[in-house]
Design brief:
This protein is mainly β. It has one helix spanning 4-9; strands at residues 18-24, 29-31, 34-43, 49-57, 60-66, 69-75, 79-89, 94-103, 108-112, 117-119, 123-129, 137-145, 148-154, 157-162, 167-177, 182-191, 198-200, 209-214, 232-240, 249-256, 262-271, 291-299, 308-317, 320-329, 335-340, 345-352, 361-369, 375-382, 385-393, 396-397, 402-410, 418-429. Mean pLDDT is 88; it is low at 1-17.
């Protein structure tokens, strides 16, 4: 805090303009008894911000900290509080932001964002959960649309930022307890303009995946094939707890009787048939997207039986098809290939691909649709080793519209069955 000498010295000065920005809790929100306060302050005072504090009632200063930022947790009894977050500057000025909160009142308490609020992306979600289950809360998650689980973690509290495109979202924060119960809190938000960038997190646990069989020699989609075989068998099992990094992984299975057969899974993210609630009917998102990143962890117990693993990013816009195909040949020679759009064939890169058995392999693929509408294969990073490609080529024509991703497993010369586990599959676009 300031000394009395400073207050006297500045008593006749014109107060400097300042402001307090509170990220959490949101005004008029319902929260748990443990409330996370996150705030920053600014001032035109040449000597800066001296301190910040939280009043839980008039004259009740519950917390102070030196500097222009605070991030702390307060514990309050059930009830409604007209709290105030205040800053004091070194010129004798002070500014405050009132935050009304209601403590208690449900299994899920969301501190931020406020229901019905207009926010900017990325959106900060701060929430906690309670339960009558003696074994406690197992996990919490955030749905950004019905069936679209954008984020999930173990435990009874979350604090994360989610990137969303412009628009109105009926989000839901949910808790799952260890007795089989669950509780939810719906939060409607409107994300401001500038929504030409975004991120889809934990896609391996979301809906929208469709599996297909690709049989030699044409490798076209087999419309008569069924997941149960016999030519090719395939399956995607979500919610697998072991092995898993996040608490839930997706096991991708391949088998069957036809040698060198492949299983392809596809998900329509934006545009036609969007699984993420982003049909982009006014075509304001997809044409403005140029940078795309495919980020995933994968696990295997015997990679030697895999002919190849494929990870694709696809953009269809203005009548042009951009297919950034990436194939890690394993039994096929431990090398990365990329897809030749014009030649409709694989192009060797000379970059080695050696994923590890019985470990989580981290893959990050970055690509770009250039300003002159060329495909640019930028880089591949596997387990921290980044290889720059900077390979460019031309698109082909299409009547499709949107952005999709693929994941594919290829069978070997004996079509030996094998499984790959996917976790933390994140797709980012801008």
């Amino acid at each position: 805090m300031k000394s009395l000498m400073l207050f006297v010295a500045m008593a006749t000065a014109v107060p400097a303009v300042a402001g307090v920005s509170v990220t959490a809790p949101a005004n008029n929100s319902k929260v748990a008894s443990s409330i996370q306060y996150v705030a920053t302050a600014s001032t035109t005072c040449a000597h800066g911000v001296s301190a910040m504090g939280i009043y839980t009632a008039p004259g009740v200063l519950a917390y102070t900290v030196g500097g222009a930022a605070l991030n702390t947790e307060l514990t309050l009894s059930p009830g409604t509080y007209d709290t105030v977050v205040q800053e004091w500057d070194n010129c004798g000025g002070a500014t405050k932001t009132p935050i009304t909160i209601t403590v208690g009142g449900g299994p899920v308490q969301v501190s931020a964002p406020a229901n019905g609020s207009t926010v900017t992306s990325p959106v900060q979600f701060v929430a906690s959960a309670t339960t009558s289950c003696p074994a406690g809360v197992a996990a919490m998650g955030i749905y950004t649309a019905p069936g679209v689980l954008a984020y999930k973690l173990n435990g009874a509290a979350l604090n994360t930022a989610i990137t969303l495109s412009g628009g109105t979202y009926q989000t839901v924060v949910e808790e799952w307890d260890n007795c089989g119960g669950a509780g939810t809190m719906p939060i409607t938000i409107t994300v401001g303009s500038g929504g030409h960038s975004g991120q889809f997190a934990h896609l391996d646990q979301q809906s929208g995946w469709t599996g297909y069989a690709l049989l030699p020699p044409s490798y076209n989609i087999c419309n008569s094939c069924a997941p149960s075989g016999p030519q090719l068998t395939w399956a995607m099992t979500q919610g697998v707890t072991s092995p898993a990094l996040s608490g839930d992984s997706a096991r991708m299975d391949l088998g069957g009787q036809t040698d060198y057969s492949d299983a392809l899974w596809n998900n329509h993210l934006i545009g036609d048939f969007s699984s993420q609630g982003l049909p982009d009917t006014n075509r304001s998102i997809v044409p403005n997207v140029h940078n795309l990143t495919y980020d995933v962890y994968f696990y295997a117990t015997d990679l030697s039986v895999s002919q190849a693993l494929e990870f694709d990013i696809n953009q269809f816009v203005n009548g042009q098809s951009f297919i950034w195909g990436h194939e890690c040949r394993i039994a096929g020679g431990n090398e990365w290939d990329i897809w030749d759009n014009q030649g409709q064939k694989w192009h060797p890169t000379g970059v080695a691909c050696n994923p590890v058995n019985n470990a989580w392999n981290h893959l990050v693929i970055q690509v770009q649709r250039t300003s002159d509408n060329q495909l640019l294969f930028q880089s591949i990073s596997l387990n921290g080793q980044t290889e720059t490609l900077n390979y460019s080529e031309s698109p082909t024509s299409t009547t499709w519209y949107g952005i999709t991703i693929n994941y594919q497993q290829d069978g070997n010369y004996e079509q030996q069955p094998y499984s790959i586990w996917l976790d933390n599959l994140t797709f980012t676009y801008s």
